[in-house]
Amino acid sequence: MASPFPIPLNALRAIAVVARGGSLSAAAKELGVTPGAVSQHIRRAEARLGVLLFERTTAGLVPTPDLQRIQPMLDAGFRMLADAIVALAAERAGILTVTAGSAFAARWLVPRLARFTGAHPEIELRFVATAATIDLAASDVDCAIRMGRGGWTGVLAEKLVPQTVFPVCSPALAQRLKRPADLGSVPVIRDEGSLISWAEWFAAAGIASPPRLSGPSYTDPIPALEAALAGQGVFMAWQLVAADALADGRLVRPFPVAAPTEIAYWFVTTEAKARQRKVQLFRAWLEAELTSKRARPVSGVWG
Predict the structure, then answer these.
(1) Tens digit of pLDDT for each residue in 12-50?
(2) 35-49 and 9-21 are packed helices; what angle lies between their axes, rounded to 10 degrees?
(3) What's the DSSP call for residue 106?
């Protein structure tokens, strides 16, 4: 039976690296071989395939149209190999690396993680708090809890819970708010990076002529929420981020209306990492926490 790989894996790797950068010396450095060895890999592959893979120019090696056509498949194949190796090593190490946004992590996830580690002491947690979208296939991160509308490519994404938004404030400040128009007479705290606006909440509340809002603004939702906890204004909060502060009475909802959004929290991982026991255990635990009393969605209409 003919081999499905007439070109050695090392040669394919050399072709992929040179195609990405066009330099034999840079490719040789990345691969840990000599430029001559890289050049020999390419020449032998071209001879075996009977196809010219690179144009030799004064600026370096330029992929031919034939190579450009298969280059995405080559890159995807090596990403899958790297993903498999990372997944195998991480599974044996018993380390689960999770990433999520800092606000969700600080206000909802981290306070609950002790229950996961208590139930699974054999799994060591490593947490990466960032709003950046980490490439799960090219990193050691096992899974992510992402906030957004979905649609990410190259991953498995499962919607966990849709999010509503509503105003929150300290109990003392709430005494000054009898109707939505009163928002014009108190400080309104703004999160400059928020995915939603006050206009959406006013629309959900049926307020045709909203009051003019003013107050401090923050580039991060964590200090914005801290300002609301300190009684410094009214903040438009996502339900999970405000859940614990509402449950223990540090924050209250001055109005019962909650505006629906297209935003949700998603559990995201790769196909290979989804098979790992530690990822499956974390996913099951997360679902159980999200369906507990404190995480139930809020709803209501202004009347």
Answers:
(1) 999 999 998 888 998 889 889 999 999 999 999 999 989
(2) 110
(3) I
Q: Of the candidates 65, 76, 278, 282, which has an alpha carbon nearest to the alpha carbon of residue 160? A: 282
> Above 50 in pLDDT, residue 292?
yes
pTM of the model: 0.68
Cα angle, residue 26 at apex, residues 25 and 27 outer, rounded to 5°: 90
Going from the N-terminus, what domains does the chain have, and what CATH number goes with each? 9-91 (1.10.10.10), 95-161+263-291 (3.40.190.10), 163-261 (3.40.190.10)
Residue 128 corresponds to which amino acid?
V
CB within 8 Å of 71: residues ≥ 6 apart: 16, 19, 63
Q: What is the pLDDT of residues 49-103, one digit of tens each?
A: 899 999 998 888 999 999 999 899 988 888 878 777 766 665 556 889 999 999 9
Enumerate the β-bridge partners of residue 147: 265
Strand boundaries in 70-114, DSSP class E: 95-100
In DSSP notation, 223-248 reads HHHHHHHTTS-EEEEEHHHHHHHHHT
Half-sphere exposure of 252 (CA within 13 A, CB side): 12
Phi then psi for residue 120, to 5 deg, are -135, 70
Give helix 239-247 / helix 221-229 axis angle, nearest 10°. Answer: 30
- Give the pLDDT score at 267: 97
Q: Is 104 helix (H, G, I), strand (E, B) or coil?
A: helix
Which of the 8 DSSP states describes residue 274? Answer: G
Strands 124-129 and 95-100: parallel
Look-up of token digits 């969700």: 104
